[in-house]
Amino acid sequence: MSQGERNLQEMHGTKRRADAFYNNQMIDYLNTEMQEFVKARQFLFMSTSDAGGNCDSTFKAGEPGFVYIIDNKRLMYPEYRGNGVMASLGNITENPHIGLLFIDFFEDQIGLHVNGAAEIIENDELHTIIPDKNTRTALFAQHENRTELWVVTTVHEAYIHCSKHIPKLVDTKNLTDWGTDDTKNLTDWGTDDTKKKGGDYFKVKQSKKERE
């Protein structure tokens, strides 16, 4: 959390709600539910900024499992050969702060924010992160040896992005009754129903109790 958000909470009278969110939905590691959620994703949205605070956002994708969970404090994803600009990687060399957003648009309509510190790992340095040779070999095979670099993120914050404004993506070409109430109103926009917003989807309360 930032001082800026705290200042605005005080200004707009939302501190009590914000504290409830911090206490009930935010942790500084990936619990089991979060790890399984990440493993099932085929894409993520990522934000970085350079030393001057100039931001860049981008999209990363791969087969489920392309984001590898190292442990409950670290995850990593591969950087494939691209256009050579390396905007995000360049930012990371100047400013390690990174924001990752994983979203399920298709089933549960829920999201996971992961904020932390990133570092770039070369292929020949991967043994410092993944000591087991068989695991490294499997990772390279999984990505068909297309990986040029890896980005390792150490988790500082992990928390839910509720279902409230996440649309359900469907193939409208295969819906003969598209436009009816059942297919048109796939999202309960603006709801304050805790259950409809996702509730404690990642079981953060339980994780906190287990650590007490």
TrEMBL record:
Composition skew (Basic and acidic residues), residue ranges: 192-212
Residue intervals of the Pyridoxamine 5'-phosphate oxidase N-terminal domain: 31-130
Signal sequence annotation: none
InterPro entries reported for this sequence: Pyridox_Oxase_N, Split_barrel_FMN-bd
Region (Disordered): 183-212
Name listed for the protein in its UniProt record: Pyridoxine 5'-phosphate oxidase superfamily flavin-nucleotide-binding protein
Source species of the chain: Jeotgalicoccus aerolatus
